[in-house]
Amino acid sequence: MSAAACDGLVCDQLGVGLPGQPLLVTVHARLQAGRVSAILGPNGAGKSTLLAVLSGARAPRSGSVHMQGQPLGRFSAQELASRRAVLLQEASVAFDFTVREVVEMGRFPHRAAPSRQESAIVVQAMEATGVAHLAERSLNALSGGERARTHLARALAQIWEPRPDRCARWLLLDEPTAALDLAHQHQSLGLVRRWALEQGVGVLVVLHDLNLALRYAHDTVLLGGGQCAVGPTEQVLDAAAIARVWGVECSGVRARDGVLQYLTTAQ
User: Ranges for the ABC transporter domain (predicted)?
Assistant: First the structure.
């Protein structure tokens, strides 16, 4: 298998929409591991539905998704769980688990062939997201932001080690910053960007904040008005596209580190 086939997540004329509802959008894109790809668009554009299709949790209305050169539907649930981790927008647990126990759940897909470092992986994942000091606390007693960082640690623990076949690991996140304060938004997105750059993990993240996408996402999948634009974030998120998709005027400024950021005003 070629490196491109092993590392890419390919959407081939992928129809996105809920059963019985009009088709929201058709997506044609090759998403690369080792990069952060943001999924952006207004409410109802199909962002979470697209992420669900890319994770294998929902079947496409049409077209296909290929991972490692194979249709996503050919992988069993166990095989998918060893290749990609998913953080849902509303992650919850039914029982009164501790933070440590929740993060340990991320290692469940590896129970048949556990790592020699199982305990260390859990600790390191908690340290990476800043929840190690909460390890013995009940998840249900924590703030929304602390719970969100715990679930991010669980997702990281799931794909912590490189795969034996050296194919890429994927991290799919649905609005991971929604419950986080400003500092933790940047810490969490900075963390997953480092994972992409340093470990070759493919990161797909649904976001609402355009400036966070401009700072942390290499590429953007922009959904809006039944259309899809895919490409480098700064090229896709220009002022004309923002006006068309969100109906707001904006002006670009450069932060001190050179990253483009937008100031917006409602039309």
Answer: 9-250
